[in-house]
Amino acid sequence: MAQQLTDKPQCKECLVLHADEVPACSPKRGERSLRYKNARLSVEKRALAPLPAGHLRLEMIYAGICGTDLHLLQRDAAGFVATSAPLHIPAEGRVLGHEGVGRVLSVGAGAEQFKQGDIVALESIITCQSCEPCRRGQFNQCLHARLIGLESDGLFSTIVDVPASVAHNVTAMAYDDRGLRASACLEPAGVAWLACESSFLSGGDRVMIFGGGPIGLYCAMLARLVFGASWIALVEPIAFRREHAALWCDDVYDISDERIASARVDVVIEASGFFDNLQRIITGVRPNGRIALLGRSGKPLVVDAVDHIITNGITIRGVRGHLGGAFGRMIALYKAGRLPLGDTITSVVASLDLLQEHLIQHEQLISQNCKVLVKLTK
Predict the structure, then answer these.
(1) Contact 68/82 with Cβ under 8 angstroms?
(2) What's the pTM value of the predicted model, to 2 decimals?
(3) Mean pLDDT of 55-61
């Protein structure tokens, strides 16, 4: 039987993205959708609908800001929303946010593995469980996936309803504020784990990471603390982020540093979305080297040194998502004191109104921070 609170909340406050839809051809899977213009944000109150079966109703505690959230407010030269991630904005708008942790308020029928008061962290990909990739266990490539905060309403809300299938019980981890904040970072850390794992990163490897945002920094942490890299370099144009990443890297370079081109590496992780970076390092990738692409920008990948790739057996691989066990591994590593998830956090925004301001005027948010959370409980 579904559990309900005696004093049930009647409405929620949320940060909503609105945009004008422009008729266009549907893109092929994996291609950028040019559908929306004139993106704008508003903080709104919405009534709560009945809780569906198989869902949890959560009071959100912390939610994380991702680069994808910022891209939704940026425009390309033609005025379209600049993100290359899958996106669907309905007429009533889309609630943003896909990283976070919350407290269970109500449990829908069929989700009784959770109870009121549990603290849960959330995956950001809702899978169909029935397409060919899902049946093979390749959930990150689900053909009918819906991305929370992009194709399904997200977590920048005081209360959210989510499928229980995306929830991880982190009550034992999130017993204090430090653990709550760390739990809000499990999603980007899981993405970084998959990037390292997909690169077959192993002890003694030399690693270069492009992008010093949260995912790039988690890649550096994991490469050092878990995968046993012998040398880690991180390339980042923003001085604040270079300084913040220095603890986890042997070398930290500005994007113009000439040492990038002369480095010799086994693994490259491209987490910035600026694929011209690969031209700088491709001939420095050693035999049987691996390149992981996970930063989205919609820009083309152009690589000239094809003979070097063929001769040296270099693998270039796209990496998407965090499904398939990454959350469980991150939780275990954090609880064992092996992974300081909260060390990426540099700021906490105190309300949805302030979050709206920061997202609209995002230059300082980026230049003076790594991971930023928003606190959603009063």
Answers:
(1) no
(2) 0.91
(3) 96
